[in-house]
């Protein structure tokens, strides 16, 4: 394999079950063979993507002091600003040369689960940029709708009822992450193959990644070869994560990927979709005829465990 498959998602909206099944089979083949695919004809307009990139750029242009006032270290719920080199997706290789900003489902401060301090049920941090919150929440919702649709394709391919995942996606853990990779002039970082983002697999169910035209993303094939995932206008680069891999008992396999230190400034928008934090991820529910390879675990507990490996500050939060 030298490139990622390109799949038209429009078929999942068809009233014809045969067309939905054919599209689902394409998704399933990609998830079994490489764990990545490009999604086209997904219904999110080009100008909506372009607007999200423009708003992300506006945030990262704010003074560092302003961004630090919204630091993820102030939130136990994985929301806020991640400063340059604060993240280590591949701890053995060193810190990632990128900065990021996370927003999640926009719960009000008086939501019962927010008041109770339930994990992944916090309030978002917002920069004081006019219209920014409204626009980014619209983009967040558009990605959530698309992620829910793709999950229906997964359900069809896995032989489940088409709406199997719907109940688990009623109030999911859904994080929109804006990312900025500065142009690298450092010889040491340019020499490291994953200096932008360390080689890793994603933690949740599904990632929808919008990229700009600057190269950087690479994906490992099943044979361990690294291939480029170049920008395709209007397309999302999609991949499954470890939580879905557990749930389907390794029928779909998550795939390592990395970002090289770019030669010029690079932006991307990653939407990470997991299910509700209380949902039980149990392979017996998805592949009932197979011997389960993983014990049941709640989505919230699994994500907390994985995030604690990435962020040193979360260990201190969980200890309090």
From TrEMBL:
Q: What is its EC number?
A: 1.13.12.19, 1.14.20.7
Q: Which pathway, per its entry?
A: Alkene biosynthesis; ethylene biosynthesis via 2-oxoglutarate
The keyword Protein biosynthesis is annotated on this UniProt entry: no
Q: Which reaction does it catalyse?
A: L-arginine + 2-oxoglutarate + O2 = guanidine + L-glutamate 5-semialdehyde + succinate + CO2; 2-oxoglutarate + O2 + 2 H(+) = ethene + 3 CO2 + H2O
Query: Is Metal-binding there in the keyword field?
Result: yes
InterPro entries with a match to the protein in the record: DIOX_N, IPNS-like_FE2OG_OXY, IPNS-like_sf, Iron_ascorbate_oxido_reductase, Oxoglu/Fe-dep_dioxygenase_dom
Q: Which UniProt keywords apply?
A: Ethylene biosynthesis, Iron, Metal-binding, Oxidoreductase
**The Fe2OG dioxygenase domain covers which part of the protein?**
172-275
SUPFAM superfamilies, per database record: Clavaminate synthase-like
Cofactor(s) needed, names only, are: Fe(2+)
Q: Which domain of life is it from?
A: Bacteria
**Group of enzyme by EC:** oxidoreductase
The entry describes its oligomerization and partners as: Monomer.
Q: Which family does it belong to?
A: Belongs to the iron/ascorbate-dependent oxidoreductase family.
Task: Supply the name of the protein.
Answer: 2-oxoglutarate-dependent ethylene/succinate-forming enzyme
């Amino acid at each position: 394999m030298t490139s990622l498959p390109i799949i038209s998602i429009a078929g999942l909206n068809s009233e014809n079950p045969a067309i939905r099944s054919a599209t689902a089979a394409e998704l399933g083949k990609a998830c079994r063979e490489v764990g990545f695919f490009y999604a086209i004809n997904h219904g999110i307009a080009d100008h909506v993507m372009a607007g999200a990139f423009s708003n992300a750029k506006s945030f990262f242009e704010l003074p560092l002091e302003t961004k630090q006032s919204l630091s993820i270290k102030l939130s136990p719920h994985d929301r806020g600003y991640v400063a340059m080199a604060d993240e280590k997706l591949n701890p053995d290789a060193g810190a990632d040369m990128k900065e990021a900003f996370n927003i999640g489902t926009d719960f009000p401060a008086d939501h019962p689960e927010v008041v109770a301090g339930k994990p992944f049920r916090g309030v978002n941090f917002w920069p004081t940029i006019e219209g920014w919150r409204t626009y980014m929440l619209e983009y967040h919702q558009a990605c959530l709708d698309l992620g829910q649709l793709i999950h229906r394709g997964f359900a069809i391919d896995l032989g489940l009822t088409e709406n199997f995942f719907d109940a688990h996606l009623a109030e999911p853990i859904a994080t929109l992450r804006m990312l900025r990779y500065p142009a690298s002039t450092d010889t040491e970082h340019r020499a490291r193959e994953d200096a932008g983002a360390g080689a890793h697999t994603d933690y949740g169910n599904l990632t929808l990644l919008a990229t700009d035209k600057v190269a950087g993303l690479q994906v490992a094939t099943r044979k361990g070869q690294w291939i480029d995932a170049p920008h395709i206008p209007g397309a999302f680069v999609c991949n499954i994560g470890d939580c879905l891999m557990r749930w389907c008992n390794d029928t779909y396999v998550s795939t390592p990927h990395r970002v090289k230190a770019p030669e010029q400034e690079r932006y991307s928008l990653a939407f990470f979709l997991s299910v509700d934090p209380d949902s039980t991820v149990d392979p017996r529910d998805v592949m009932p005829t197979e011997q389960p390879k993983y014990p049941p675990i709640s989505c919230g507990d699994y994500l907390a465990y994985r995030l604690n490996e990435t962020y040193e500050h979360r260990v201190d939060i969980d200890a309090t």
